[in-house]
Design brief:
It is built from nine helices and eleven strands. The protein is of the alpha/beta class. It has two domains: 211 residues, Rossmann fold, CATH 3.40.50; 84 residues, no CATH class. α1 crosses α9 and α3 runs parallel beside α4.
């Protein structure tokens, strides 16, 4: 039985991937996530016998149970192309997110697990001209691990989303990982049409005429300045752009869905519901873009779900990497 811990757990996307790959041969013994709303979604989907721990900086590594695999999708804001990219100097609400990686090191230095798995934004690859990634890899090597890393795109693993992320897999030096290779793209091609809701969605997801007009004016202003920022309407036969938390992720992944028949607003809006049938994707559609199964519960309000799913991982990518990790561990038994 492989024991794992889930740090910066979010809503459990990485855990889902490993659970799928390892099946009954893996059990989660510790979870840390500081966002209370994310904790609620996590608890709705995982029936653990222990409470979710909060702020990782306040967790004593000696209080963490022994484990074999560390899962850590450590915060990406410090390295994201969309942010200010301050890296290890980034500070947010009194917590230096860039240095939260060193809490992973602190815990893993004490427990020396067999595997450390990390996920982050592609921007980490070239942040500070590659120095940041070099520091991370050097720290893991100094801790006694052989490090593998690669950028993979979610669209190559069965979900219709153009989402590039860097994945870092570190094996303890006494484990022979010479045969480890990141997975190759699979041949399954999917489109937005494959993940849209089966039934007509609520009118609340359709843009108001006033909102749509604002988006168009906003894009026109940016285009006049030579900028490319603006909303985007995706063809149902295409794939989505990377979903991210915040309005930008929704506005850049609008679709046309002509099934709506009742244009009576169900929420307070300015103007009317647009007759061009332009709408946002629903949280369930976002969950499918990330490869979450439909059995995964989405218990909170949309505003929280969009944020949580935009911050999460593409489950099929993680599960495919986890299968490769499992093969290495099985070979080393």
């Amino acid at each position: 039985m492989i024991k794992s811990i889930d740090l910066f757990a979010g809503i459990g996307g990485i855990r889902l991937g490993f659970d799928k790959a390892f099946g009954k041969n893996i059990t989660t013994v510790f979870v840390s996530e500081w966002d209370l709303h994310a904790q609620k979604t996590y608890k709705a989907n995982f029936n653990d016998h222990f409470d979710i721990a909060g702020d990782i900086t306040k967790i004593n590594e000696k209080e963490v149970p022994e484990f074999d695999v560390c899962l850590a999708g450590f915060p990406c804001q410090a390295f994201s192309l969309a942010g200010q990219r301050k890296g290890f100097d980034d500070d947010y609400k009194g917590i230096s997110r860039g240095t939260l990686f060193f809490d992973i090191l602190r815990i893993c230095s004490y427990h020396k697990p067999k595997v450390i798995f990390c996920e982050n934004v592609k921007g980490l690859l070239n942040h500070d001209r590659g120095k940041t990634l070099k520091i991370i890899i050097g720290a893991l090597r100094q801790l006694g691990y052989r490090v593998h890393y690669q950028v993979l795109n979610s669209k190559d693993f069965g979900v219709p989303q153009n989402r590039e992320r860097i994945y870092i897999v570190a094996f303890r030096n006494d484990i022979d990982s010479s045969n480890f290779k990141f997975p190759l793209p699979i041949n399954t091609k999917t489109s937005i049409r494959d993940i849209i809701e089966t039934d007509t969605v609520s009118a609340k997801y359709y843009l108001s005429t006033r909102y749509l007009d604002t988006l168009r004016k906003h894009r026109t202003r940016h285009e006049s300045k030579g900028n490319g920022f603006g909303y985007e309407i995706r063809s149902l036969d295409s794939i989505a752009g990377a979903i991210v938390c915040g309005g930008m992720g929704r506005e850049r992944n609008l679709i046309v869905d002509e099934r709506l028949t009742d244009f009576l607003p169900v929420t307070h809006i300015k103007g009317e519901i647009n007759r061009e049938y332009i709408r946002k994707m629903t949280p369930r559609e976002w969950a499918r873009l990330q490869g979450f199964p439909d059995t995964y519960e989405l218990p909170l309000a949309d505003v929280h779900l969009y944020k949580q799913l935009g911050n999460s991982v593409s489950v099929p990518v993680v599960s495919t990497i986890a299968e490769k990790i499992k093969w290495v561990l099985d070979d080393n038994r």
